[in-house]
Description:
Number of strands: 8
Distance between the termini: 52 Å
Mean pLDDT: 93
CATH topology: TIM Barrel
CATH architecture: Alpha-Beta Barrel
Shape: globular
CATH class: Alpha Beta
Strand content: 15-25%
CATH superfamily: Metal-dependent hydrolases
Bound molecules: zinc ion
Number of helices: 12
Largest sheet: 8 strands, parallel
Helix content: 40-55%
Strand order of the largest sheet: 1-2-3-4-5-6-7-8
Number of domains: 1
Amino acid sequence: METKAVLKERETTDIMITELADAHCHLDLIQDPSVISDAITAGVRTMVTNGVDTKSNVRAVELSDGRHIFAALGIDPEHAINISGEELEFNIGMIKSNAKRIVAIGEIGLDYKKAADLKAMERQRAIFEGFLDLAESLNLPVCIHSRNALDDVLSITGERNSSKVQIHFFEGNVQQAKEIERRGYMISVPPLDSGKRTKAIKEIAIDNIMAESDAPVAGSTPLAVRKSIEMIAAAKAMSFESAAEAVTLNTKRFFNLHAKAGLMRA
Ligand SMILES: [Zn+2]
């Protein structure tokens, strides 16, 4: 006779693992490589790792394998404030020479909490605008970090008709979420509870939603994307499986991963 524990174990190993995609994380900051392989084994078959500065951009390219790990390169608003012109050019060069290999420019954006004064805000904006134009010219999507700055992000991306936009760690209100949906942009949901975010998720189509771990910053590992999906499923009154299927497909489609995987492995 089998014990309960054995039966339980058999049940969990027999279950078909739902394939999940982590639409935004920072794998360069994860020291133990088994954390990444464990996440893959547990179902997180796709991860988009974002660079924020020179070092993490170099690492993101190294980590990307065209199978489970895909890279986005950018200078985030915190590093944009003090980056030298020369270093910025180096990173732009890295983006251009890896344009076929990378899946997006990111993370880039505006973070008014990190900007101490008007000069810092203007510097963030100038660099952000440069990257948006670069993304359009290379036909790449953008992963945008926005803190206390979403109205400006939406007006800047609106002015230049940016087409493929992901607002990572969405923290906006219902009205902003609806504008994002109207434009065909995407919000990405982190694994952190927020009543405000739940309201926004309820008001827009599942087609405009992705799930992210933002590991190891928000979630500790990419597996935390499960929690993001649970929150999306609860808000949309969907099963975990159907929410997971929808947001995974959205992520693959948005970043054009099928074509990218082919290019990278060719
Ligand atoms: Zn991030």
